């Protein structure tokens, strides 16, 4: 799909160059620009289409094993500042509940993983991708999101395609 569009764009560009008239060039460059914008839009839409196969956090996007591993890491690396109940302490904000959802609702798990990877503040980047995703799984569990059958992937594409969502409140 993408190469097809680029091919079409390239043939338009060829036609722009051949007449050699500056006025005509200007007249045609704008639509060509629009065409490129459209190609980009289509490419982005196609990427989102692929991402649709990424799991929804509302339907179980991590396993219990992952969350347990994450809990271990959380206790060792995060609890002192963010609290046993993820309620936050002093300067450290909560990692569960309405305030957290207010920041992260609709944001990708990839963005959230990137934020986790800035932690602990004294050792940014010290967590492996697996460790970051395990902690993320524990945070999803703590936010009341369901456990699933398939482990949360460490792949950027999957994490980018999965948004953080708070579980619906009872009665919603
Ligand atoms: C020494 C205390 C400390 C430790 C340990 C720590 N954090 Fe933090 N964390 C903070 C502070 C302070 C902030 C807010 C300011 C900042 O971003 O540095 C924060 C911010 C965050 C945020 C952003 C929250 C938001 O609302 O956007 C996340 C997510 C987070 N921490 C996760 C973790 C995880 C996961 C760990 C363990 C791997 C961890 N933190 C360890 C102090 C800490």
Can you walk me through this structure?
The chain has helices at residues 2-17, 22-51, 64-77, 79-82, 98-104, 109-116, 129-142, 156-161. With 172 residues, the chain is mainly α. It folds into two domains: 2-51; 57-161, Cytochrome c-like domain (Cytochrome Bc1 Complex, Chain D, domain 2, Orthogonal Bundle), CATH 1.10.760. The two termini are 40 Å apart. Heme C (HEC) binds at residues 77-78, 80-82, 91-93, 95, 100, 103, 115-116, 119-121, 135.
How far the N terminus sits from the C terminus, by CA atoms, comes to: 40 Å
Task: Characterize the main sheet.
Answer: none
Estimated share of beta-strand residues: under 5%
Number of continuous helical runs? 8
Give helix % range: 55-70%
CATH class of the largest domain: Mainly Alpha
Topology as H/E string?
A: HHHHHHHH
How many separate domains make up the residues?
Answer: 2
Low-confidence stretches: 1-31, 40-46
Q: Could you give me the name of the CATH homologous superfamily of the largest domain?
A: Cytochrome c-like domain
Q: Say which molecules are bound, naming each kind only once.
A: heme C
Radius of gyration: 23 Å
CATH architecture of the largest domain: Orthogonal Bundle
Question: What's the total count of β strands?
Answer: 0
Using the alpha-carbon principal axes, give the shape: globular
């Amino acid at each position: 799909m993408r190469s097809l569009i680029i091919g079409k764009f390239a043939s338009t560009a060829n036609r722009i160059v051949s007449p050699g008239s500056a006025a005509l060039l200007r007249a045609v460059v704008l639509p060509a620009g629009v065409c490129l914008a459209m190609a980009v839009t289509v490419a982005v839409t196609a990427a989102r289409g692929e991402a649709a196969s990424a799991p929804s956090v509302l339907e179980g996007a991590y396993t219990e094993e992952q969350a347990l591993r994450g809990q271990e890491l959380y206790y060792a690396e995060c609890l002192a500042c963010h609290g046993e109940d993820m309620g936050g302490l002093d300067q450290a904000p909560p990692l569960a509940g309405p305030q957290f959802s207010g920041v992260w609702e609709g944001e990708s798990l990839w963005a959230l993983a990137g934020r986790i990877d800035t932690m602990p503040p004294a050792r940014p980047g010290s967590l492996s991708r697996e460790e970051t995703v395990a902690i993320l799984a524990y945070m999803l569990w703590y936010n009341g999101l369901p456990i699933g059958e398939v482990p949360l992937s460490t792949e950027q594409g999957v994490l980018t395609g999965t948004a953080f969502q708070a579980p619906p409140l009872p009665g919603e």
